[in-house]
Write a structure and sequence with these properties.
Length: 144
């Protein structure tokens, strides 16, 4: 089972309706708090998740997507990995899409670059029919 290697999957939320963005955001925040992240980091994580899942609503079409959260923490590190996958048209130009101000939807073009800055690892794989954003927040635990 791949999850034994990559970390325990804590939740998987389908993203097809704007209310799912809110659910993913608040569930992630709650889990981050439970895993020991401080409130500023909880907000960073929640904000990144809302931007990426909001893009699914805006650009992926009616098929929507899914947001998964994995706890990959160990004794020394708190590590939360997020995967957001959709089956829409794909991002035509990933390099451009990561630039501040680039939007094909009349938005601010702040979602992807903003989320990347908030997280510690950030990767996009996209082609027509599948877009996958993977991002992680990693913090050293405070012992004693
Ligand atoms: N899941 C996706 N599927 C297809 N295209 C996407 C997806 N996510 C992002 N994009 C493309 O990347 C561009 C940049 O996304 P980004 O979130 O940075 O800005 P935006 O959504 O246009 O505006 P903002 O997020 O500031 O409201 C989008 O305009 C769109 O062209
Ligand atoms: Mg956006």
């Amino acid at each position: 089972m791949s999850e034994a290697v990559t970390g325990h999957s804590i939740f998987s939320i389908e993203i097809t309706d704007p209310s799912d963005v809110v659910s993913a955001r608040s569930k992630a925040r709650e889990i981050a708090a439970g895993l020991g992240l401080g409130s500023a980091d909880q907000t960073r994580l929640a904000t990144a998740i809302s931007e990426i899942t909001r893009n699914v609503i805006q650009y992926a079409g009616p098929g929507g997507g899914v947001c998964r959260l994995f706890d990959e923490s160990d004794n020394e590190w708190i590590r939360i990995r997020i995967e957001v996958e959709d089956w829409g048209i794909g991002i035509t130009d990933v390099v451009a899409a990561l630039r501040d101000g680039y939007s094909t939807g009349g938005g601010l073009g702040a979602g992807l670059p903003g989320a990347r800055r908030l997280m510690d690892q950030f990767d996009i794989q996209s082609h027509p029919g599948c877009t996958k954003v993977e991002m992680s927040m990693i913090r050293r635990r405070h012992h004693g």
